[in-house]
Amino acid sequence: MPRSLPVFFAAFTSLALAQDQSPVEPKSLPAPDQPIKATEPSVKKIDDNRYDISGIIIDQKLREIRFPAKVNMPEGLLEFIVVHINGKLHESLLLTEISPTSLNLAFTLLRYLPSRELYALPNDRGGESNDYPDVPAATKAAARIKIEVEWKDGDALKRFPINDWVQHTTTTLAMPPGPWVYGGSEFHDGKYAPEISGDIAAVFLSGSSIINYPGADNRDDTVWIAFPKRVPPEGTDVTVIITPFSN
Asked: CA–CA separation, 43 vs 98, rounded Å?
């Protein structure tokens, strides 16, 4: 962790605003009536290990990220696990009001490395080729994360992998345990793509999402649903917890 988080943050923000990478697919962008206003992150020290980044709590010792969310869809087809409140609410399990830029800053401060391994390289015609980036094994390992959800059920505090809340429509089994991939997303016309799309964590591969599911059927938008009887009622307050993945 850098000694001066405000100084690091200022450098990070300047670098981010200067970048302009490949365009986001149109399907990843929100409808015109879903504007997402970018907010400048603020960093506040809580104690020796923890910092508050605009409502996102990071623990540098545990390399843990926590942020508030609500249950958005206790049933139905899913393309996302988490979206911004002004994003694609009709296909996301959870919604949150945190800034995607602040979340990406949290990943950066905790030394997670983004891996673009899931995205096919462009072909000569501007579409997708059958080739993928050659990502070093160390980068892939540093990009793998575990996502859990914590909530109050009466007086009991419960915590489970988010995979347990997602069901496959054909096998009827929960999403297999395993890592998610921090991809970092991209910039479009000088803007951080998730601030435009609201995509934060996707089960159906999204080029603008900060996090993506790397498992089977991540290119099929008809197979994943909210797991009946496991997901709490709509509007339930939850905490999303992200930590390094370990086998």
From this structure: 14
The structure tokens 């505090």 sit at 157
Question: What long-range pairs does 168-176 form, CB within 8 A, spacing at least 24?
Answer: 168/217, 168/223, 168/224, 169/222, 169/223, 169/224, 169/225, 170/223, 174/227, 174/230, 175/203, 175/213, 175/215, 175/224, 176/215
Going through the chain in order, the beta strands assigned E by DSSP cover 43-45, 50-53, 56-59, 64-71, 80-84, 92-96, 144-153, 156-161, 166-168, 180-182, 187-188, 191-192, 199-202, 211-212, 224-226, 237-244
Alpha-carbon gap, residue 161 to 96, rounded angstroms? 18
110 pLDDT band, cuts 50/70/90, is very high
Long-range pairs for 14-21 at CB < 8 Å and ≥24 separation?
16/101, 16/187, 16/192, 17/190, 18/190, 19/187, 19/190, 20/187, 20/188, 20/189, 20/190, 21/186, 21/187, 21/188
pLDDT tier, 5 (very low <50, low <70, confident <90, very high otherwise): low
pTM, to two decimals: 0.84
Nearest to 92 by CA among 199, 215, 190: 199
| The predicted structure's pLDDT at residue 36 | 54
The per-residue pLDDT for range 166-199, each reduced to its tens digit, is 999 999 999 999 999 999 988 888 889 999 999 9
Number of H helices, E strands in the chain: 4, 16
Q: What is the model's pLDDT at position 14?
A: 44
